[in-house]
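One-letter codes give the sequence; the integers encode the fold. A sample entry reads:
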Amino acid sequence: MTTTHANTGHATTGHAAAARACDRETGVTRSLLGYGVIAGPLYVGVSLAQALTRDGFDLTRHAWSLLANGDLGWIQIVNFVLAGAMTVAFAAGLRRAHGGGWAPRLLAGYGLSLLAAGIFRADPVDGFPRGVPAGEVSWHGIAHLASGGIGFTCLVAACFVLARRFARRGQAAWAWSSRVTGALFAAGFLAVASGAGAAWATLAFTGAVVLGWAWISALAVHTYRNA
């Protein structure tokens, strides 16, 4: 009987230790996923607040990345860096929750592109900042555009990769919403790239950015609930 009780005690202790370890792992995963929930609202909120209050900024003519210029440009630079770091953290949480694959890597690539966009400032253009003439394209302006192009491609690809995963799991609503998000984001990016500064193109791109962040936040909440 003593041996039986001892074995039972060891088993109970082992199960408790395993449960604690599992709880720690789940807690870390959920903490990382939580960054994906808040990254979008933070980025959009800070960007929109500046867009509505910065002198000379026009939502119909200027992309949010231009807010990194001027005396208050540091605010948008920090916004880029924080959003990028949180997106990378979310990608790590997604990998822990779903295993490997391309989706976490692509989302991490999008996060890294935001970090790069903060480091490499966009060139002033089209009257913003007010009083600063648009000059020649600089090396950091080219790096900003390149990092944005790579990051946007990663985000669009992540949408379609996850759409396929959701479809295999029979989650039709998530599959279609991911496809629509990817398609509309790609359309918005192509619009601003080819619209030659037209108001419709700038607004389409801004809408696509908001949609992309909304999708990331929704994905983070969905994954968090199922982690």
About this structure: The helical segments are 2-53, 73-98, 102-119, 139-168, 172-194, 199-226. Residues 1-14, 16-21 have pLDDT under 50 and may be disordered.
